[in-house]
Each structure stands twice: as C-alpha cells, then as structure tokens.
Amino acid sequence: MRRMVSLLMAVTLGLGSQMAQAACVGLGQARPLVQAGIIVPLLSALGAARQAAGGEMIDGSLCGAAGNYRYVVTFLGPDGRVIRVTINAHTGEVVGVK
User: Residue 74: helix, strand or coil by DSSP?
Assistant: First the structure.
C-alpha cells in the first residue's frame, strides 16, 4: 500500500511539473529574460527555424520554465501546411519540427 501511495505521489508531482513547463507566454514577455542573458533573442534563432520549416512565420510564443525555456514558432509552409518549430531558447538551436 505504501508503495502504491509513493507511486501515485510521484506521478502526480511529475504531471504538475510538466504542466508548469508547458505554460506559454507571448513573445513580448521574453524581453526581460533576453536582457538578463538567460535566453537568446528570437531573431537570433529564426534563421535556423525558417530553414527547417520554410514558409512564413505566423505566430510565436515562449514556453517552459527556468532552465528549460523554448520558443515555439508556427510557420505557414509554401504548400499551405502549418509547421511548428521548437527552438531551445537558451542556445537558439532548433530541437523539433512538427
């Protein structure tokens, strides 16, 4: 029984931290983090993102929490598909394309 309670607590805590990391804010709220040197400006990372997605940027946000910030940028591809690019906001590297 104690083992099951421990497992349930671990799962609950894990989901809580995932939910906290999933929080996103508008790009305007990234400015203080950029000024503090915690993340790179989105413009610095957009070149690689555009190359990965092609097309035109139509939306963007900053997601995550301290130590795990990422930009999520949405592009409209040349063929009309919507492409979401995830960028490590600390390094500016593309980490995912969907």
Answer: strand
Rounded Cα gap, residues 46 and 56, in angstroms: 11
Q: Which residue has the tokens 């979401």?
A: 84
1, pLDDT greater than 50: no
Residue 7 predicted with pLDDT over 90? no
Dist CA 63 CA 11 (whole Å):
22
Task: Kindly give the pairing relationship between strand 94-97 and strand 82-88.
Answer: antiparallel
Token couple for 81 = 């598909």
pTM summary value? 0.74
The type of residue at 9 is M
